[in-house]
């Protein structure tokens, strides 16, 4: 049964956090992360690798309401990176954030069937910077899956979705209408150094998320259910 995008937002908005980082040159950037259970937050590797994490927080309560002030968490451990340094996945263990748990899908790479996913409705959640806003705001974007891409450089498949690509969505979840995360928003597919907004928003499939969490023994019990011990 398809879940309307607004219902997905209400269920899982509190699970999405923003991450403020400081680059080596002193500039600050913002990215996103999402809670998969037991205080484990998944994000894109490039959001945090080589950067100092200044803050991680949420701005939506578990009833789906926007807060007037952010809840700031504290990093208990991590970051934990995917064992293959070319894979754009990382995880953090964060205390102090009362966040919903986003279930990861069962769409492993060899199970991806274009015919089952093309034109399915999805919801992208993240924290792209909004000019003149006093504080980070969670942005929700309805979209559909336009293509499944195997890049010529190798690696895991990516889903191309129709939402406009914007910096700050990186590390956020892409929720499909079947009530789970189909992947992690990672990169913009673009060429010739064109502006980000002219590229395609790409979503990395869930398999490398599971691999990263398994490698570091971080898979929450909620995410192991239904796998018959595959990730133990």
Summary of the model, kept short:
By secondary structure, this protein is mainly β. 12% of the residues lie in helices and 41% in strands.
Description:
This protein has helices spanning 5-12, 45-48, 114-117, 207-215, 221-224, and strands at residues 16-22, 28-37, 40-43, 52-60, 66-72, 74-81, 90-95, 121-126, 139-149, 158-164, 173-176, 180-189, 200-205. It has 232 residues and is mainly beta. It has 2 domains: 15-101 and 209-224, Thrombin, subunit H (Beta Barrel), CATH 2.40.10; 103-206, Trypsin-like serine proteases (Thrombin, subunit H), CATH 2.40.10.10. It has a 7-stranded antiparallel β-sheet with strand order 5-4-1-2-3-7-6. β11 and β12 (180-189) form a beta hairpin. The radius of gyration is 16 Å and the shape is globular. It starts with a helix and ends in an 8-residue tail after the last helix.
Write the layout of secondary structure elements.
Layout: H1 5-12, E1 16-22, E2 28-37, E3 40-43, H2 45-48, E4 52-60, E5 66-72, E6 74-81, E7 90-95, H3 114-117, E8 121-126, E9 139-149, E10 158-164, E11 173-176, E12 180-189, E13 200-205, H4 207-215, H5 221-224
Antiparallel strand pairs: 1-2, 1-4, 2-3, 3-7, 4-5, 6-7, 8-9, 8-11, 9-10, 10-13, 11-12, 12-13
